[in-house]
Amino acid sequence: MATADTDVLVVGAGISGLTTAFRLSLRGINVQVIEAAAHAGGVIQTVRRDGVLYERGPNSILETNPHIGELIDQLELRSQRIEISARASKRFVVHRGALVPLPMSPAAFVSTPLFSTGAKFRLLREPFASRRPADSEESVADFVVRRLGREFLDYAVDPFVAGIYAGDPRELSLPAAFPRLYALEQRYGSLIVGQIRGAHERAKRPEKGKNIARSFSFVNGVQTLTDALAARLERLRLRIRATHIRRGMSGCLTVATEGNGSSEESRARAVVLAVPARQAALLVRDFAPGAAQALDAIPYAPVASVASVYRRADVAHALDGFGVLAPRIEQRRILGTLFSSTMFEGRAPQDHVMLTTFLGGQREPALPSLPDADLANIVHAELAALIGARAALLSCAVTRWPHAIPQYTIGHPDRVRTALTAEDALPGLFLCGSWRGGISVGDCIASACRTADRVSDRLQQAATIRRA
Known about the structure:
single chain; alpha/beta; seven-stranded mixed β-sheet; 18 helices; globular
């Protein structure tokens, strides 16, 4: 019987692949990671230039589950971690052209101009709204209108969805995109009743909801995490692309690769595909065409981010918050802006501010393809109108992600179930990535830990069978 080159081959060195590989390596499992790009980390990229630190991808991490803190401690990064500033506690929403804080307390909700008096009284009817059947799938927009009313969709949920998914609540699947909201209705028949009756139970869980979890980063940015993971892996190969997977005569999985001017094959007892859906589809198509079709059907939203720097004196707004989200109904050209230099210290030189603005998404998918100068002009015009940016920006950096964020649209649960049949078609294959289980950094870390556990269990079972 031929000997495997490695116990586990992980395809993809984003946060999911790196975390899976690192967790397996801690258990003494021989792991090799290959990555088609010239650097590890995927969309997590931090740049420091001329005294400015900005993120090309995720700007912070929400500590929503215990795996995140555990990973930081294993990598000895606790001393480099920085918490989000107390000044970033406000979340602003554009309302009639002005920035209005999202109400975070009952008293603030009563007085906020975001919602009309009628919309506020409409909330009292929420506990009496009918519950949808458990086997039915509903869009986020339909769910919110049914339970809370149109204004809550327009000025709370729509901007929130744009901020997380760069998506359209009319297209996103509630059980896929917001499973906790779906579970609240199914269990309690009401969001309000569920929040009250379920508070004690939620307090005992190790996981935290995204509405209460704290954001953090590192002194040198989010890339600190992926750099540390990559440094701890003994066998990480860059500029290597997987082209084909098959089961070999030995029972191992054989992965054909190309890169660095050569082609080769690697044998592994297990293979983890920690890549975007469309890349996974290409690799499973030969032995699981139905799974490949489901993976191909998962859309991704295109996003451009513009990191811009101004003199503090040239911006009228106090920037005393996390940032601002722009609802679709306001017809702005941006999805939202993070007040990056308020969120974390050290992001801009003294007496300057750094802002990170996002454009495109499902709202305007063609926008990210515009030239850099056009995107910079759009952002400056929007910031001038919204936060009083009175002078030209000092510098900006544009980043484009043509396939930035997977969209959990209607039918997504079925697509995921079909995609996972690839694991049945080729035992020893495991699928992992942001297209399932959540799109945030924290979600990907939790999903990667579960994947590593499944891989480890399989290797142990195979070893037991061989000994028997």
